[in-house]
Give the backbone structure.
Amino acid sequence: MTKSEQDRNISSSFAKGLAVLAVFDAATPSMTLAEIARRTKQDRATARRGALTLVQAGYLRQQGRMLSLTPRVLALAGGFLQANQFGRRVQPVLNQHATRLQTELSLAILDQGRVLLLAQSTTERGPVTYGFTAGAHIPLVHTSLGRMLMACLSQEEAAGLLDRSEIPRHTEHSLQDQDEILHQIAAARSQGYCITDSEFEPGIIGYAVPLSRPGTTPVVLGSSTPGGLAADHKAEQLLQGLQVCAAELRQTHAVEDL
């Protein structure tokens, strides 16, 4: 099928409506129509039609001038999670290993230049939590999950993705030089794991290992812990635990078709 034939089969209105849903996040849980139009780069009339259609369908709630997501959007994610049997094949494995390691574990994938959390352990023993949940986006460049995801790509693909990404300064330790970041990505690819120290949150060390097999959609597994005197010992223990957990998740085949 040619590109022109593909374009004829695409509903631009539907795509623009999905773009409206995608602009809501933790930083902007509610917006006006003007804000939605600006963030989606749609004209005001198009954004208004899309947003009001979503209100009628039950995916957005309107209170005065402000619009926000409703719980119905969870049904979209629920269909994906159930189809891939995350509740049976992923969540129990994450919870079991998180309890043994006494820290939270996260499963993540690339999504339009950001890190998308697919699943998280639900134990109460983890010492660190940012309050993120499945479906949340986190920064790409300065997190161990993001850097490991880029390491799952070729160096050329990683460089192209980095060129298109923002490089904010979350902390004084956040790397800013693209060559140095690419060097860290290459090192993670070579050694099979990634560690970031205080680049996203002061005093927090992030760990990540690849979960997916080469040639498939990149999926990684990670965790984070406070730094301190026992950090070196904790790093070795945690990386080993992550690798064991990743191996067990690979055996479930739960992430092979993502």
Notes: The first helix runs from residue 3 to 8. Residues 10 and 190 are 40 Å apart (CA to CA). The mean pLDDT is 88. The chain has eleven helices and nine strands.
